[in-house]
Write a structure and sequence with these properties.
- The chain is α/β, with parallel strands linked by helices and about 325 residues long.
- It contains 11 helices and 6 strands.
- A 6-stranded mixed β-sheet has the order 1-2-4-3-5-6, sandwiched between helices.
- A hairpin with a 2-residue loop joins β1 and β2.
- α3 runs antiparallel to α4, α5 packs across α11 and α8 runs antiparallel to α9.
- The longest helix has 29 residues.
- It is elongated and about 115 Å long.
């Protein structure tokens, strides 16, 4: 009877093992995120624990027959079952705590993703630790391509974050497209998120990219952890005042007193500048070619270095570096 009772306990353990193993597979399939995956790994290890349990049961059988007693007055099956649960919990804690390199949803760092017939080129970094935030980088333009912003950011951010760079449609290494609506761009972003199995991400946007970041967030707020705008395509009163100041300096050097008077009048207005005024300022600044606040020689040197790196390290061709 004792052997039959122990055999019954063994069958129960086997049933529990099968159920936990099945649950682990289902969790991994449905979620795939780090905590769930680690838990599933733990559950999948239960069969090996089962083997240990069987061995302990056999030892208890011999022990019980020879001594006609059990340890601490407990049945062998209960002792083994307790060890089984403790070992499982211990492994769960170990796998959940252990720091390992992040395992991205895609093992491929660079490649192409299809978005309704358009082939989008992407590159994602592999940071040093798991649970690293995901940041989608949205370049400017439209049409500048991602290589320059990647060159500017990758050395400082790729090890701390899972950075996802991509060339927007018809730019860089991505293929040509027949349509360039805002819906197209937003759908491209969603195609990348789904293809790389990213649940939520941050959006780091530059210039034109800020338009995409804000529009995407209004449509998919649950997917966005936050937005980082860098040189957004948004004019503020402070920026407008700076441009007017540059215009006044320009016309002062040109001895054009009438224009100096006009722009000084704009500068002295107490009310905030409206949209129309901002556009007038931008148009005049662009016409005169005085909009740049960068050291042009230094900026040119930096751009040439970005182009060299893109061709030598990232396999871009010269034709893929222009603005389409």
């Amino acid at each position: 009877m004792r052997i039959l009772r122990l055999a019954g306990f063994w069958f129960l353990f086997l049933l529990v093992t099968f159920i936990t193993y099945l649950v682990g597979l289902i969790i991994t399939f449905l979620f795939g995120s780090s905590w769930y995956t680690n838990s599933a790994y733990t559950l999948a290890l239960m069969p090996s624990l089962m083997t240990v349990s069987v061995g302990i049961i056999i030892l208890f059988i011999f022990y019980s027959h020879s001594n006609q007693k059990t340890i601490a007055g407990l049945s062998p099956g209960l002792v083994v079952f307790s060890l089984y649960l403790l070992a499982g919990c211990g492994l769960l804690g170990y796998f959940d705590y252990k720091e390992e390199p992040i395992q991205n949803s895609s093992d491929v760092q660079s490649g192409f993703i299809n978005s309704k017939g358009v082939s989008l080129y992407y590159h994602q970094s592999i940071p040093d630790k798991k649970y690293a935030p995901v940041i989608l980088v949205l370049h400017g333009g439209p049409g500048s391509g991602s290589y320059s912003i990647r060159a500017a950011l990758s050395d400082s951010l790729d090890k701390q974050f899972r950075m996802v760079y991509f060339d927007q449609r018809a730019t860089g290494r991505s293929s040509w497209a027949d349509s360039f609506t805002l819906d197209d761009y937003i759908n491209d972003m969603e195609s990348i998120r789904k293809a790389l199995n990213i649940k939520t991400w941050y959006l780091l946007s530059v210039s034109w990219g800020t338009v995409l970041a804000h529009e995407y967030t209004t449509r998919y707020p649950e997917q966005v952890e936050g937005i980082i705008n860098w040189g957004g395509l948004i004019s503020s009163q402070a920026e407008t005042r700076t441009m007017i100041h540059n215009l006044i300096e320009y016309y002062t050097e040109s001895n054009d007193s009438l224009e100096v008077s006009i722009w000084n009048n704009w500068m002295n207005q107490s009310k905030p500048y409206n949209r129309l005024q901002t556009l007038r300022v931008l148009n005049r600044v662009n016409q005169l070619g005085i909009k740049s606040t960068y050291d042009k020689a230094q900026q040119t040197k930096r751009i040439l270095e970005y182009r060299r790196r893109a061709m030598q390290e990232w396999n871009y061709t010269k034709g893929e570096l222009g603005t389409n």
